[in-house]
Every structure is written in C-alpha cells, then in structure tokens.
Automatic annotation (TrEMBL), chain A:
InterPro entries per UniProt: Longin-like_dom_sf (IPR011012), Sedlin (IPR006722), TRAPPC2L (IPR044760)
Keyword Disulfide bond found: no
Protein family membership: Belongs to the TRAPP small subunits family. Sedlin subfamily.
Cellular compartments annotated: Cytoplasm, Perinuclear region; Endoplasmic reticulum; Golgi apparatus
Gene: TRAPPC2L
Protein name according to UniProt: Trafficking protein particle complex subunit 2-like protein
Keyword set, alphabetical order: Cytoplasm, Endoplasmic reticulum, ER-Golgi transport, Golgi apparatus, Transport
One Pfam family it belongs to: Sedlin_N
Originating organism: Alligator mississippiensis (American alligator)
GO BP annotation list: endoplasmic reticulum to Golgi vesicle-mediated transport
A cellular component term, taken from the record's GO annotations: Golgi apparatus
Length: 145, 657
C-alpha cells in the first residue's frame, strides 16, 4: 500500500503556522499525518533560523529531509515569504529520490504562485483552487505509482 | 404535485402531467424562497398574470376564485388553480371554477421576458434559466410556437415563449433564439425566458452537465440588459450549440466594458481593478476566484482583452445558471478569442466592431503579418491556432520576464509602469507589447503557464536588477581638500616665524601673502593661533570620523580667513612698515636708527607676544576641551552603532520577510 504525501503549505509570517492546504493520499490515518506535519514545523523553523543571513537562493528553499521517523520521511521546503511546504512520504517508497522530491516542491511552489496571482485570493486564506487540487492530485498519483 | 391535486377551495383539481410540470415550474419561478411550500412572490405572480394577456378584471376574478385573496397569499394550491383558470380564460371559457374541471390547454404567457428585461437592470436577476428536465419537456408554449414548426414533442426544447415567433414584436427578436429551435436535443434542454427569478438554476446546476444549448440567447439577453441597450438583433450567429462561444454583441459589449476599465485595448486590466469590477456581479468570491483561475491563462494577475472577455463570459454564464467548467473551454481560450477577432465576420455589417480588436492582435503579432493575411483569407481555425500558439509561447517568456522582474512587488501594490518598461526593454523581445497598466503583481516570485517557462529567467533578470542597483550607487565622495595640511605647513612656518622674528628681525623677508606674519600683530596673532590650535587638534586624532570635528573647525576657519585677510593688509602694512624701517634701516640708515625702532618694536612685540601667548593658551585649552568632548561623542556613537548591529543580527533570522 502506498502512502504518500500530506502536503501543507503553512503560512508563517504571522507566526501562527496554520495550514493553508492539506491533502493526503490515501486518506486513511490522515490525523496521524496532520500530527506529523505539525511537529515537523518545528524542525522547519529550526532550519530556517539556522540559515541566518544566508542568501535566499532557490536551492536553499528546499530543506531536504527534515527527519526520518518510524516509517516515514518528512521533507520540507520554504518559500521566500516563509510559506512552508511539508511532504510526508512513506519510507517504504524508496523509489522517490531527492531530485524527484525537489521537482515536486518546485511544482507546488509554482502552483502556489499561480494562486497568489489570483486577486480574489487573499494570502492567508485556505486554498480552494481547483487547479491547485488537480495539480496536487496528478502529482501524487504520478509519484505514488 | 400534491397541492395541485388537493385544491384549495375544496376543489379537486385534476392536473395532467404536462400541466403539473408547467405549473410547478411557474410556481418555482414565482416563489421567493427555496421552500416548496412557500408562497409565490406577489410580484412574480402579478407579472405572470399580466403576461397571460387577460383583461384585468378577468385576472381579478381569477385571483378571487383561486382563493389567494381569501388566504392572502399565493400558495401552491392557489397558484395552480389560478393557472388553470388562466388557461380556461385564454381558451375562452368563463372564469369559473367549473370551467377548470375539464381538460384545458396550458396557459400561455407572453411578453414576460420583455417586462422582466425592462425590470431587471442587474444581471443578478436575469437567469437564462436553463432547466434540465430530464423527463418530458415543458410545452408551455407549444401552441404559441406551433407555427414555428416546433414540435410539441417532449423531446424538443422549445425556446422561451418570448422566443422569436414571427408574430412577436421586434423586441423579441433580440433574443438570438433562432438557434436551437430546429435542433432537437436529447430533450434535456429547455430554455425558459429570463422572465422569472429562477430558482431552478440552483437545482439544475447539479444535474446539468451540458447546460449549453441556448445559453447564448441568455448571454445575448444578459449582455443587452446589462448594457441597457436595445441592439438590433443579430441572428446571424450560428454558434448555436456552444454556450461558451461569444457572440458578436457579447464581444462588443465586453469590449466596451474593457474600455471603461482600461482605455488601451492592448494592455492589461490589473488584478484589483478586475476584482472590483467582477465583484459587482455579485457572484460569490470562490466562484469568482475560480473564474479568474480559468480565464487568466498566463497567470500573471492581469487580464488581457481576450482573457477579460473569457472571464466576463464565464461570469455571464454563471449568472445564467451554468456550472463553471473545470477547464477553460476551447472557445474561450485567449488564443482562440484573438483568432476569432481576426477572422472575417460573416456579417459585414459587424466588421467594424472588429476594427478595434484587430489592432490588438496585429500589434501582438507583428512578425506574423504575412501569415495574418493568409489567415484573413482563409477562415479556418487550424492555421491561426498554430500561429498563435507559437506567438503565445513567445509572448509568454516576455510576460514571464515582465512578471518575474516584479519579484520585489508587494501584494496588491501597484507597480510603476516605468519600472516594468525598463526591465522589459532590457530583455528586448520582438513583440512590442505595451505594458501600460501592469498587473497588480501579488507575490509572484515566479510564474508558470500551461507551458513551462524557463525559470532561469528569473535569475537573469534579478541579476540585471542588481547590476542596475549597484550601478546606481553613488560613487564615493571625493576626498576632502586638505586645507589642514596647508594650514599646518603655514602653521609650521608661522611658528618658525614666531621664533625667528624674535631672534632676527631684520633681513627676514615677510612670508608669502597667503601666510601673513601674524605674530607681528596681536590681533592677527589671536586669529592665527585660533587657527593654529584647531589644526593642532586635527593632527593628533586623524580619524576619519573626526571629519565632523574638522567640519566644525573648518567653518571657523573661513570666518577667520577674512579676518586674516583683513589683517593682512594691516599686517602687510605693518610688515611693510616694519620692513620698510628695517629695510630702510638696513639699506640707508645707520645702525643707530635701526636700533631705535627695533628696540621699540621689540619691547612692544614682547608684550604683544606675551599676551598673545596667554590668549593662545586659553584658546588652546578651550579647543582641547572641545576636542575631548567630541571624541567622547564619537565613542558613544560607535557604541550605539555596535549595539544596533548586534540587535539587527539577533533579529534578522526571525523577521526576514
């Protein structure tokens, strides 16, 4: 059984870190995923602060493997506006390589910026965009198989 | 259909199936709320009755009979009875309860749409009311339309009663309902006049996957009602089977609306402007958001004319009850819309309307001019689509650059057009697109289109930005003229002069005019020593930050300069006086005479020198104090700076935005 990503961009400038969007495939154990994502936020914050005055380069937006726990791995990515993307991947899914994860995050980031272009979207709102949903679904389907 | 069966005035009213459906529909339209048992809105009912074209007194009778007057409202039962009575009246039977017991044709309602269109000024109230009734269609107007050759078949979707029956007045013609008439759909479509507030749209959204047919008429009506104009009927448009096509009038209307927002047809409507405009349509925000997503194909936060038309069209469709598609229909793609604007229109009369849109497309497709001509000659879709695909792909990088160059744009902050133009010029694309009104770029660090854009552009443009910014930094200021050194040199010389004057007076040539022998005159000495001391103070610190001290001292020097100069002539005079006697002494007079004035001068000078020394010492002390104070200030400023820097460093990882 493939269990993959729970994706959640989390908005941080207000220091509240609430999820803008959460999705998981398959949908069982979703609560566990939510919990994992939430705890991983601390790791993300730590990584951001550790960078300090580091250049905000796109390469550094990808935080890499945050920590491997139990039977899943957590990857993080942060945008320049401190919106965080967290991906939880089943550890048994060894086919997923780092650059694939990177490309997934890049796609997510692109879709997120597309959403931001929409004047009807207020930053900080939960994301209801169908285009975003479709993109996420297709991505997850693609990589789960 | 229970109420129908259970008559209100204790009258069992048998309704045929068709009648039931008809009445249910009409009732649904008239009722203000979703509750099936709610009473029909009085105004809607009144209109409906008026539309039946019965005389007023007949209507009064009907209302009385059906029991609405008694009950005070038009409940379902009353409504149905009333409708039946209307049918009876229309078929010539007397308005009595007995007459409705028999089978009657359906009541006919005309002129409803006209009234409603006049009445409804806002799109919110107009619903094309496409209803999907999977079962037998409503033949409400079957009789009226019989002459149109429309079938009484349940399968055929009779258009709205207001449709274009030949007998109807010209105002009905506005509805381009001609299409769809002869078409027999699979019976799922019905186009009812936009006369009623349609609650059905709410219901049918779920059902209708293909709420397409006949929607154009709705759009046409809607557009006209929106513009509150009565345009001549354009029955030439044959896009009958696609609600996602934009008719000519609609396109014109959209064009006009675009102009009101943005006079230049070639440039964009920004996000906020469009948002305000579309919000007026009173659609819910999530839907508007979805419409935007669909129509803003290049995801730049701004709408071109084509995108705007698409968005507007979607809004119009949505208001008419059509569910929003998940994907932008092909006919609403900007490519297609711009192609369509180029194609020669079948009706030459409307060609003028496209003269405006032509420059738009031509400008954006300069290098394909020859192909454009071929397009014009050959009105096929395939070629232009290919062309425009190419062009859009070229346009995209340009827009990507333009958008990417706005990395620093804040959310909902308008960007200066100059900035855009500058950056676009740096990228020098072939297509001269005018970005006059550039989008409100929400935090668009990078943008994406349906076709992937090269991301590297973002960095190239940012490097250009950085280069520009760096180049704009002012060069370091030139070094200050170091008068101090000159002064110092003069200082030394003066010192030397001071020493030497006491020792050897005669034969000592006066110093150059720039450096008058100050010690000779007490006043000049004061001035000179004031100058000397600052110079002395200046020399020890020799810190760059002592420039403020320098600055303070320098102003003192210029005032002293004129003083010096003032005294200079005096000095010079004195010098000359002194010199002349000395010279004269040396030259002509014997030593006796020379001694005499020399002795006098020497004693005077002694005294003068002593006073000068005292005063200089005082001045020295004052300046030394000043110096130490300034040094302290400097240290404090240093400390503050260090403190702020540490604070900044501490805060930086937390609040970088």
């Amino acid at each position: 059984m493939e269990r993959i990503a729970l994706l959640s961009p989390v908005c941080s400038p207000r220091l509240q870190n609430y999820p803008l969007y959460i999705r998981s495939v398959p949908t069982e154990n979703e609560l566990k995923f939510h919990y994992t994502v939430h705890t991983s936020l601390d790791v993300v914050d730590e990584k951001i602060s550790a960078m300090g005055k580091a250049l905000v380069d796109q390469r550094e937006l990808y935080l890499g493997l945050l920590y491997p726990t139990e039977d899943y791995k957590v990857y993080g990515y942060v945008t320049n506006s401190k919106v965080k993307f967290v991906m939880v991947v089943d550890s048994s899914n060894t086919a997923l390589r780092d650059n694939e994860i990177r490309s997934m995050f890049r796609k997510l980031h692109n879709s997120y910026t597309d959403i931001m272009c929409n004047p009807f979207y207020n930053p900080g709102d939960c994301i209801h965009s169908r285009a975003f949903d479709n993109m996420v679904t297709s991505m997850m389907m693609q990589y789960v198989k | 259909m229970e109420p129908g069966a259970a008559a209100a005035p204790a009258l069992l009213l048998p309704l045929s199936e068709a009648e039931q459906q008809c009445y249910a529909e009409l009732f649904a339209r008239c009722r203000p709320g979703p509750a099936p048992e709610a009473a029909a809105g009085g105004s809607g009912v009144a209109e409906l009755f008026r539309a039946s074209q019965l005389p007023a007194d007949a209507l009064h009778q009907i209302t009385e009979l059906c029991g609405a007057k008694r009950v005070g409202y038009f409940g379902p039962a009353q409504f149905y009875v009333a409708l039946k009575l209307i049918a009876a009246a229309q078929s010539g039977l007397p308005v009595q309860l007995e007459s409705i017991k028999s089978e009657l044709p359906l009541p006919r309602f005309v002129a409803l749409k006209n009234d409603s269109e006049m009445r409804y000024g806002t799109p919110a109230e107009i619903h094309g009311a496409k209803c999907q009734i999977p079962h037998t269609a409503l033949d409400k107007n079957s009789f009226k339309r019989a002459d149109e050759g429309d079938k009484l078949e349940t399968k055929s979707p009779p258009m709205s009663p207001i449709g274009s029956p030949p007998a109807s007045p010209s105002s009905y013609q506005r509805v381009p309902l001609s299409y769809g008439y002869s078409k027999s759909r699979s019976g799922h479509e019905q186009k009812h006049g936009a006369s009623y507030e349609s609650r059905h749209s709410a219901h049918q959204q779920d059902e209708s996957a293909v709420g397409n047919y006949g929607a154009k008429s709705a759009h046409g009506q809607l557009s006209r009602s929106l513009s509150a104009e009565k345009e001549p009927q354009d029955s030439s448009s044959n896009y009958s089977d696609d609600p996602w096509r934009i008719t000519e009038e609609q396109r014109d209307y959209y064009l006009n609306q675009f102009k009101t927002l943005q006079p230049d047809l070639n440039s964009f409507i920004s996000g906020t402007v469009a948002k305000n405009f579309f919000t007026k349509s009173k659609l819910p925000i999530p839907e508007l958001s979805h419409i935007w997503e669909l129509s803003d194909v290049d995801c730049d936060g701004a709408l071109t004319l084509a995108e705007f038309c698409a968005a507007f069209h979607l809004i119009v469709a949505r208001k008419n009850g059509y569910p929003l598609p998940d994907k932008l229909p092909e006919t609403l793609l900007p490519d297609y819309l711009q192609t369509a604007s180029l194609k020669p229109i079948r009706d030459c009369a409307l060609f003028d309307s496209y003269s405006e849109s032509l420059p738009v497309s031509q400008q954006t497709r300069d290098f394909n001019r020859t192909e454009l001509e071929t397009v014009c000659e050959d009105p096929t879709n395939s070629e232009p689509l290919i062309l425009f695909d190419v062009m859009t792909s070229v346009i995209e990088p340009k827009t990507s650059i333009e958008e990417v160059s706005d990395k620093s744009a804040l959310i909902q902050a308008a960007n200066s057009d100059d900035k855009q133009a500058l950056k676009i010029s740096t990228t020098a694309k072939t297509i001269p697109k005018e970005f006059q009104h550039l989008a409100v770029k929400t935090v668009a660090h990078e943008t994406n289109t349906l076709k992937a854009r090269p991301r590297s552009r973002s960095y190239s443009s940012t490097s250009i930005e950085d280069a520009m910014k760096k180049g704009e930094e002012p060069p370091t200021p030139p070094p200050r003229p170091q008068k101090s050194h000159s002064r110092a040199s003069s200082l030394d010389l003066n010192k030397i002069f001071q020493q030497t004057t006491q020792a050897v007076r005669s034969g000592w040539l006066p110093p150059p005019p720039a450096l008058p022998p100050r010690p000779f005159v007490s006043q000049t000495e004061q001035v000179s020593e004031i100058e000397l001391h600052p110079q002395m103070n200046r020399v020890p610190p020799q810190i760059e930050e002592s420039s403020p001290t320098k600055k303070e001292i320098l102003p003192t020097q210029p005032p002293s300069k004129p003083i010096r100069r003032k005294f200079r002539p005096e000095n010079q005079m004195l010098e000359n006086q002194e010199l002349s006697p000395t010279i004269s002494v040396t030259s002509s007079l014997p030593a006796v005479k020379s001694h005499h004035p020399v002795q006098k001068q020497s004693s005077k000078q002694k005294r003068a020198i002593q006073t000068a020394i005292r005063k200089n010492k005082e001045a020295n002390a004052v300046l030394a104090r000043l110096n130490s104070e300034l040094q302290q200030q400097l240290k404090e400023v240093h400390k503050e700076r260090i403190a702020l820097e540490t604070q900044l460093e501490q805060l930086r990882p937390v609040t970088v935005l």
